[in-house]
Amino acid sequence: MSTATGADLAQLTGTYTIDPSHTRIGFVARHAMVTKVRGAFNEFEGSVAFDAADPARTDVRVTIQATSIDTRNAQRDAHLRSNDFLDMETHPEITFVSTAFRQTGEDTFDLTGDLTVKGVTNPVTIPFTYEGAASDPFGNLRLGFEGAVTINRKDYGVTWNAALETGGVLVSEKITLEFEVSAIKNA
């Protein structure tokens, strides 16, 4: 999981809470076939349980409030919250629950789990890079991770689109999910 020695890695064993004020859960979608729109979810919570002796037992759980979607455009955000996209009235949460953890390199790993969007659950594998561990000014041990995965939104029942006069569609089917995570070790 890192370049840390076995003794250092053992110190990372524990349960962590994802720090929403230092974490970004974002996404990127193609718009009108020519540009990208970036957004983020501003309200979420999550936990990470890591066991250095048996990393495969790692457990990650994240719950995102769909209504917190933010693309810096109120009209677009309202449309994304509607039944055309996330249907947040019926499905207010997006969830991820891990099912497997596999180290792929010195500081890289794949996290596999069940992603539920709009009531539809599919397995995804997210490649992550471990960015390190540090004690913050308040004495908290923090771990940092970054990762991204591309999904097809139609696999989650998010099918709305509009044809363009010049060909193509308004919104891409492929959506890249981005994760920049800071997690604080629980006391």
UniProtKB/TrEMBL annotation:
Gene3D superfamilies: Lipid/polyisoprenoid-binding, YceI-like. InterPro entries: Lipid/polyisoprenoid-bd_YceI (IPR007372), TTHA0802/YceI-like_sf (IPR036761). Residues 15-184 form the Lipid/polyisoprenoid-binding YceI-like domain. It holds the Pfam family YceI. Belongs to the UPF0312 family. This is Polyisoprenoid-binding protein. It comes from Micromonospora haikouensis.
